[in-house]
Amino acid sequence: MKKQYLLMIILFLIGTFSYGQDRVIEGTVVSASDGLPLIGATVVKKGSTSGVTTDLDGKFKLSISQPEILVVSFIGFAEKEVAVNPGQSGPLTISLEEDITKLNEVVVSGLASSVKRSNLGNAVATVSSEELTGMTNQPTMDNALYGKVTGVNITQSSGAPGGGIAMRLRGVTSITGNNQPLFIIDGVYVSNAEIPSGLRNASGANSGNEENASNRIADLAPSDIENIEILKGPSAAAIYGARANAGVVIITTKRGKRGETRVKVSQDLGFNTIQRYMGIGDRPWTPSLVAETFGDGEVTAYNAAINGRGLVDYEEELYGETGLISDTRVSVTGGDEKTKFFIGGSLRDENGIVKNTGYQRASVRANIDHQLTDRIKFTTSSNFVNSFTQRGFTGNENEGGLSLGYNLVYTRPWDNLFPDEFGNYPDNPNAAGNMLLVRDQAINDENINRYIQGASLDINLYETDQSFLKFKWNGGFDTYNLETYVYVPEYHQAQRGLQNGFIGVGKNSIFNTNNQGFLVWDNYLSGGSLQLTSQVGYTYITFSRDLVYNQATQLIPAQTTLSQSGTQELDQTLQDVREFGYFAQQEVNFEDKIIATLGIRADKSTLNTDQNKLYYFPKASLALNIANYPFWSVDAINQLKVRAAYGETGSSARFGSLFTSFDPVNIGGSPGVSISSLRGSDNLVPETAAEFETGLDMGLLDNKLSFTATYYNRTVNDLILERQLQPSTGFSREIINLADLVNRGIELSMNAQPVQNENFIWNSTTNFWLNRSEVTRLDVPPFAPAGSAFGVGLGTPFIEEGQPVTQLKGRIDGEVVTVGDAEPDFQMSFFNNLTFFKNFDFSFLVHVKQGGENINLTTFLSDLAGLSGDLDEPSGQERTSNPNTDRYLEDASYMRLREIALYYRMPDNILSVFNGTINKIKIGASGRNLWTVTPYSGYDPEVSTKGGTGLSTGLDVNPFPSSKQVYFHVELEF
C-alpha cells in the first residue's frame, strides 16, 4: 500500500515539474469554409506580446510553460481564442470563420500603431480590394468609392476618361481653400492636384477651374489597392495635423505573401456609351415651327436640308461613339520567411464617347518586404505610371467657339457642319465654332510620367513576454512631370482675325517628400489585463511645384509648334513649402472592455505667418465594449460598444496668401512688374476644425447582423476669405480670417448575412448618411464666392450667416432670395453579394441620393437657342415663360445601379484537367452605371463645372457627358 502512495507522489511531482517547464505546442490554422491552410496567421499568447505566425503550410510552434489562451487572427477572418496547457498531447487544428462584420479588422489608430475595429473609438471606414474592384472594373480609385462609404460625397467634374472627381468627407471644410482629403499611399503623401492646361487662354472666356483637368489620384491603378481607410473627420484624423482638415484617405497597396510563387493574369474588355441624351434639337420640326422660332429666312435652309442630307442629330453625332475599353493586369506574388514580394503591371486603354478622346495608363509596381534580421524588417513600395489623356473640349467655354457642348446647344439640326470633299469644314452659322472641326482637328492632351517611392524600417529594440519597444521609420517621395498641349488651328472661325491659331504648352514638375520616425512601446500590466501603447515621433514634409506655361498665337499656317508663331508668352509659377510636426499618443486597453486614447500633434509650416510657431491639434477617444463585461447576459447581442471621440485639425493658408505679389507687365516691349491689387496678410492663422463624434456599434446573432450609428458635430473656425478694400488703401482686396461654419451629420450602416449554407451565401450592407451645414460667423456682408458660379442672376452658391454653406441664391421677381441647396437631404446605398453553389457570385450596388439642387445652365442655353426637345411641352413652355432663377434650378435626386456583376469560378474537377498548371479560372460580366432614375433633365445629376475645389458642386454647363460601361472578364491564376 505504501508503494502505491509513493508511486502516486512520484507521478505528482513529475507532473508538477513538467508543468513548470516550457513545452512546445504545435498546430495548424485553417479556413473553416474550405479547410485550406492560412499562411501568415498570427498566434499570440493572450495578454502578452509573445507570438508567432503560421508557415507555408499554416503550421505553427509556440513554447508555453503554463495554461495559456492563444489568440489566433488573420485578415478577413474572425479572431478566435483557444485554451492550451503544457500537458496536452497532439497537434491542434484551429479553424477560423470569415469575418463579414470586420470587427477584427485592424485599422490605423495612430501614425505607427493599429487597433482592432471592435476597439475603435472612432467611425473609421474601410474598403477592401474585393469591395473596391471585386464587382467590376474601375477606371480610377475615387470612381470606385461611389456609394460604398458613409459620409463621403463624390462628384464628377467631367465625364471624360481619365478622372475629374471631387471627393468630400462630411461636408464642406473651406470656402476658398481645399475641400479634398489628404491622400497617403503606403506612407507617402501624394498629390491630387488639378493642373489646368491653359485651354482658357484660347478665348479668355473661362477660368482655370473650368477646364475639367484630371485629378492626379486617377494615376493610381485601382487593381493595385489592398485596402483603403478613410478618416472622415478631425476626431480620427487629428494625428495628421495641419493637412487633415478635409479628412485623410490612407491607401495600402497589395503585398507579397509567404508561399509558392503565384502568377495572376486578368483581362477585361468592355465599352463606353453615353448614359443618357438630353434631346437637344429634338423638337418636332416643321417649316411653320422653324419660321415661328427663327423667322421666315431660316425656312429655306431647313427645306434645303430636308431635300438633301436631312436633319442631323448633332448630339448623337458628338456623343454617340461606342468607346472600347481594354484593361490587362499581371501580378506575381510569393515569398518565404525572409522575403515577400508583389510585382504587378497593368495597362488600361479606354476610348471615350467622343471621337479623339481617351485615356491610356500603364502602371508598374514592385512591393518588397524583407526581414533583414530577427529584429529588423525593411519594406519598399515602388510605382511608376505613364498616362496619356485626350480630354477634348467641353464645359463653359463660349467666346472661343471651342466647347463641344456650348456650340451644340446653338447648332440647328439643318446646319451643315461636315467637311467637304477637300476636308474643309464650314463655319457654324449660329455659334462661335464648328464643334466637328474642334473634335477632329483641335487638341487638348495631357501626358504624365509619375514615380512614387515609399520605404519603411521596423526595428525591434526590446522585447519580453510583457513588453515590446520598436522604432519605426517610413517615408518616400512623389514626383511627376505633367505635360499639357492645347492646339487650335488658325482657320477655326473664332480664331480668324484675332489670335489666328493658338498653342498652349505646359511643363509642370511636382516633387513632394515626407519622412517620419516613431518610437512605439507596448506594455502589458496586471497579468496582461491592461495594455498600454505609447508612441512619440516627428514628421517632415516638403511640397515643391514648378509650373511652366508657354503659349503662342498668330500661328504660321499648318504649324503646330511654339516657335512657328508671331506672338509668344511665358509664365512660370514656383512654390516651395516645408512643414514639420511632433506628435505623441497614449492608448490604454483594459481587457478589451475600456479602450481610451489621448494624443496631440504640433505643426509648424512655411505657409503660416510665423513659420516657427507651433499649432497644436489634440485628440481623445473612449470606447466601452459593454458586451465584454461579465454582467452582460444577452446572448443574442455579442457586441455592444458605445464610443465618443474629439479631435482638432488644421489647414494653412494657400501659397502666396502671406505676401503681396508682383504682377508682370510689358509696356512697349520693356518688361517690368506692378503691385498686385490683392493685398496679402501677415497675421493669418490656419483654418482649424474641431469635431466631436459619438456612436454605437452592435453585433447580433454571432455577428450575422451588425449595426453602426454615428453622430458628428464639426466646427471649422477662422475660414480664410477675401474682402473688399477702400480704394484709398491702394488695393482692391485682401486675404484675412473672416468666418466660421459647422457641419452636423448622421451615418448609419447595417451589415447582415441572412443566409449561409453549403449552396447559398448572402451578404448584404445598407448605408445611410446625411450632413447639415451652417455659417455661424461672417465678418463681411453676405457674398457669392468668386469663381463658384456666374452670379445671382443665373444662380450661385452664397455665403450668409445663419444659412447652409451650400445654399443657392437667385433672383425671384427681382429680389435676391434662397432658391435651393446643393447639399443632399440624405444618401443611401444597398450592396448585396450572393454566392450560389460555391461557384457563382452575383453582386450589385444601388446608390440613392435624395434632394440637392443643380443649376442646369445647359438646359438654359438650349432654351435660349430654341432647341430644347421639350420646349413644345407644358414643362418647357412653363420654364421659358418664367423670368426667375428657379426656371433652371432642378432636383438632382437619383437612384442609380452603380455596379452589377456575375462571375463563375471553375470548380476543382474542371481545373484538374490542367494538371496543376492553372489553379484558378474566373469568368464573368459586369456593368457600371447601367440604370439611373432621376427627375434631373441634364446628362448627369452628378456634375461640377467648376472642378473639384470650392463650392462648385451642382453647376451644370455643357459638360462631357457621363458614360455607362459594360465589361467581360477573364482571370487566370497559375
UniProtKB/TrEMBL annotation:
Protein's membrane topology: Multi-pass membrane protein
Any one annotated GO CC term: cell outer membrane
Protein name: SusC/RagA family TonB-linked outer membrane protein
Localization of this protein: Cell outer membrane
Similarity comment text for this entry: Belongs to the TonB-dependent receptor family.
One Pfam family named in its UniProt record: CarbopepD_reg_2
Record has Transport as a keyword: yes
Keywords, comma-separated and alphabetical: Cell outer membrane, Membrane, Transmembrane, Transmembrane beta strand, Transport
Domain TonB-dependent receptor plug span(s) in chain numbering: 119-248
UniProt superkingdom: Bacteria
Organism placement in taxonomy: Bacteria, Pseudomonadati, Bacteroidota, Cytophagia, Cytophagales
